[in-house]
Amino acid sequence: MAETLPSPVVNADSAPYWQGAREGRLLIRRCDACGKTHFMPRHLCPACWSADLRWVEATGRGTVHSFTVIRRAPLAAFAPRVPYVVALIDLEEGPRMMANILGEDALDTAIGDAVAVCFEDRGEGAAVPQFRRAGGRG
Amino acid sequence: MSGTSLRNRVAIVGVGESDIGKVPGMTGLGLNAQAAKRALDDAGLKPPDIDGLLTAYSFTEPYFMLGSVLCEYLGLQPRFNASLVVGGATPAVMLKHAAEAIVAGQAEVVLVTAGENRATGQSRDQAVAALTAVGHPYFEQPYGSSIPGFYAMIARRHMLEYGTTREQMAEVAATTRRHALLHPNAHMKAPLTREQVLSAKPIADPLGMLDCCLISDAGGAFIVTSAERAADLRAKPAYLLGIGEFHTHEHIMCAPSLTEFGATRSGAAAYRMAGLGPADIDVAELYDCFSVVPIIEAEELGLCPRGEGGRYWLDGRAAIGGGAVPVNTHGGMLSHAHAGAAGGLFGIVEAVRQLRGGLGARQVEGAEVALVHNEGGILSSHCTMLLGKDKA
């Protein structure tokens, strides 16, 4: 029996992020002191160390900064998915995050591709943000 | 300005390698011990001379406080001890910490070791799965990312921005294999062509199996002491001329750039301390966990201009006798050995040997100044050192 894909691990820094994903929303952190957004939610702003942060919903639009096609899965759970695309996505708001590119045309991914967020079910209502090619170049 | 310089203050006076390859009769600690004994013999010192120990980490053996564990295993009771974890940068950083301790009077003879039984102490699947832990557990691992995948994304970006090619990356593996064939203790013993690298099993595009470092059983060690004490010892000392580190991120998603890394800064600090520049380097031992990495490092450390690292390798300038600065004269982690932090440590061992001379066909003629660069994570943590046959 195939192993299931990993579910999100929720902690105090990330609970609203993963709750947002359950609701189909990509949430990122914005600093009210310096105005910068960041990815990978933190207790404080990595640019100015203010703890005055708020969650904002990203548009979900971004571009592919780089990517790879994984031909050998690092974990058994991903083996049935090979070959699959792992990419670094530059969000319209600025921060960079990692995700898979999903969809029939995922293997056609190129650097600079415009992508749009989607959400992949990971069991019991949990979801992880993913991306699909959106046509055109960012 | 910073405080006391480490320039000319300490030297490496002994180096050792364990048996390398598949060594089923040895534990990870055993490999460290074998390398340590060989380094100590090389220095002409005895165990009671050691008053400091630094080591790294192990993925294959479940020890907490690895430095203390290794002291216990070796029967040592030092006044200075730690285990450091900055990934592949650890060996060079350990030399820096050892030098700082010696200059501060906190130790006089420091044993530095690293090694693991990664080939036989775990299955290949376990090895790959364990290394996956280098990815961010919450924001990278859920996407089935892998370490080759991270470096593949860096390689692809370098290809786009500078026109670096698969052939150039493959030449890194082919050149260093030729070097490894000149080393009696290298893991890999068979020739390797660029074509074989290009046609190897794909792992994470654009990287194939032979663009990836080895999984070896291996331990390495070196002995550091003050320049004063080094002068009285048996082996020719390799003086520390300059050393610097720089750290920009851990996970690739947080890297400030996929084409510019901290090696430029760590290298600049090392050059500044030594009062030397890239033109003074005779031989370089660069970190090569994947074939693209020593291409990038050659650029960052000034062996060639930015964007020309691929050509540096393809044109044969990185080869012994290639007319420029030869790189990874022992074969590097692609062909000599890779076992955790030991991988980068062997670059230090090789640099010391090149400065001592007498390596036959592997010898870089007239080697007086060697550069060693270690990096950890995903080009995250960097440490560069310059070693000299003489003081700077």
From TrEMBL, chain A:
Domain ChsH2 rubredoxin-like zinc ribbon: 18-53
Listed PANTHER family: BLR3430 PROTEIN
Domain spans labelled ChsH2 C-terminal OB-fold: 55-120
Protein name, entry field: Zn-ribbon domain-containing OB-fold protein
UniProt-listed SUPFAM superfamilies: Nucleic acid-binding proteins (SSF50249)
Automatic annotation (TrEMBL), chain B:
Pfam entry (one): Thiolase_C_1
Keywords: Transferase
Domain Thiolase C-terminal stretches: 244-389
InterPro entries, per database record: Thiolase, Thiolase-like, Thiolase_C_2
An MF annotation (GO) of this entry: acetyl-CoA C-acyltransferase activity
Protein name as annotated: Acetyl-CoA acetyltransferase
Source organism (scientific name): Belnapia rosea
